[in-house]
Design goal:
450 residues; alpha/beta; GMP Synthetase, Chain A, domain 3; Rossmann fold; Helicase, Ruva Protein, domain 3; 5-stranded parallel beta sheet; 3-stranded mixed beta sheet; binds adenosine-5'-diphosphate; binds magnesium ion
Length: 450
């Protein structure tokens, strides 16, 4: 249970990130929360009629969205001006500020639903598997292991499963936790004064679940006790046909800190990857986002953003919000290419790499190491070829931001995990190896001078 003012503070914290600094100070900071009526209606007071009108006119969507994120449900929001506030207090007696509110907080983000998830070639299998698991937890794919790059919708899918089960199977005990929170929770119980009790409470909490979702498992620490604990939690749930769903930015085999026995547990269900969306899907995602956030944005702007940003969906959404914000600033009804170009302004600077192509990178690497194109793309495993190949992969991925799968195709149909491994290896080595570092900067110089 939390008191209303701390929940309201959380709403404000969220809003602060959603609106400009000026708007926040002008319109949101002065708001007072008065009451929460029957867990359904939130009563908020402003300090003037014009503030009330401003919020109703321009910010109601954002306010509602922050409220629903924190309170976990779509509350009705009543905004009062000063006179209405006085009336309200008269009619309802002392304002119930001190009262504790039992907010049945849904831990899942209300926006991350299956309905709001755009399905395309890149994510259709993950979607289908997640859907099956949500409909029949513990019966279909267990564990379901989802992996893919940053901002491709893994967390969204986990929440969608959670939201679905909360709606259609509310008696089930479902938990979503990030790997870091799981670890902290466990360590905290170990450090507790009443350690035995605390650890046993920890175990009861996790082992009595019907569905456990662990996000970002790649952060699992090397610490053996945590992995051990997770291993036992996993086994207990698994043996009782409870559903386990795990998300990661890479395949279990690529998580260096993961013990073999956990890795092999993860591989005994379904492992499904989520890829970068193709152009069509990116456009559909942006359209959906406009619909959800009620953005009015010209079609050519949407196409433009979708073409320019091609890997991370979070970045796509960020750019869309920025463009919309710029249009709003100049009181435009609809965001146009003018705002899009402005929003991308900084980005184009970095795109000075434009003109560098996959071929140019491969040629430069071959020239630098004095090997042939055939060598670098082919299957040769000798060291004098393997290292240049990894460097070329790294450079293509870093400079051109081409999806791993496509890079795999360029390099003779290699699997994208292999490509990811090469890329990560070089990007790690850059930090420690002077030799690799100078290879990379020399080759980059060659590319620039072309
Ligand atoms: P990840 O956990 O893989 O890093 P998230 O799940 O946080 O990525 O997704 C980043 C953002 O992109 C979220 O706002 C999410 O709603 C959105 N998103 C990702 N995939 C889709 C999709 N297929 N349809 C609609 N929105 C998506
Ligand atoms: Mg995530």
């Amino acid at each position: 249970m939390q008191d209303l003012s701390s929940l309201w503070q959380a709403v404000l914290d969220k809003l602060e990130l959603m609106v400009s600094n000026v708007s926040f100070i002008m319109w949101f900071k002065p708001l007072k929360v008065l009451d929460l009526v029957e867990n359904k209606k939130l009563i908020i007071a402003t300090n003037s009629t014009s503030a009330k009108n401003q919020i109703l006119r321009n910010y109601l969507d954002k306010l509602s969205s922050a409220v629903s994120d924190i309170f976990g449900s779509n509350l009705e929001i009543d905004i009062l001006d000063q006179n209405e506030e006085i009336e309200y207090i008269k009619a309802n007696g002392e304002v119930k500020k001190q009262k504790e509110y039992e907010v049945s907080k849904n831990p899942f983000n209300a926006k991350y639903t299956f309905d709001n998830f755009v399905v395309g070639k890149s994510n259709q299998f993950v979607y289908a598997a997640a859907r099956a698991v949500a409909e029949h937890p513990g019966e279909k794919f267990n564990p379901l292991f989802i992996y893919g790059g940053v901002g491709l919708g893994k967390t969204h899918i986990l929440h969608a499963i959670g939201n679905y089960i909360k709606e259609f199977n509310p008696n089930l005990n479902v938990k979503y936790i990030t790997c870091n929170d799981f670890t902290n929770d466990y360590i905290e119980s170990l450090g507790s004064e009443e350690k035995i009790k605390a650890v046993s409470a920890f175990r009861t909490k996790y082992r009595n679940l019907d569905v456990l979702m662990v996000d970002d498992i790649q952060f699992i620490s090397k610490r053996t006790s945590t992995q051990e604990e997770f291993f036992h939690t996993f086994n207990e749930l698994y043996q009782n046909n409870k559903q386990i769903i795990i998300a990661s930015d890479r395949h279990p085999k690529e998580i260096e800190t993961l013990t073999d026995r956990l890795s092999s547990r993860f591989t005994c269900g379904l492992i499904q990857d989520i890829q970068s969306p193709d152009l069509e899907t990116r456009i559909a995602i942006l359209r959906k986002k406009c619909q959800i956030e009620k953005y009015v944005i010209d079609d050519d702007v949407i196409d433009f953003i979708a073409e320019k940003l091609n890997t991370n969906i979070r970045e796509l959404e960020g750019m869309l919000a920025k463009v919309y914000f710029l249009a709003n600033l100049s009181n435009k009804h609809s965001a146009t290419m003018e705002e899009a170009l402005e929003a991308f302004n900084g980005q184009f600077e970095e795109d000075k790499n434009d003109g560098v192509t996959v071929d140019a990178i491969i040629d430069a690497v071959c020239k630098y190491f004095d090997i042939t194109r055939q060598d670098i793309i082919g299957k040769k495993k000798s060291k004098d070829v393997v290292e240049p190949r990894m460097i070329a992969i790294y450079l293509i991925s870093e400079i051109l931001e081409i999806p791993l799968v496509s890079i795999g195709k360029i390099f003779g149909g290699r699997d994208h995990t292999t490509i990811m491994h090469s890329r990560d290896k070089i990007s790690d080595e850059i930090k420690t190896s002077h030799k690799i570092n100078s290879f990379i900067s020399e080759i980059k110089k060659m590319l620039k001078s072309e």
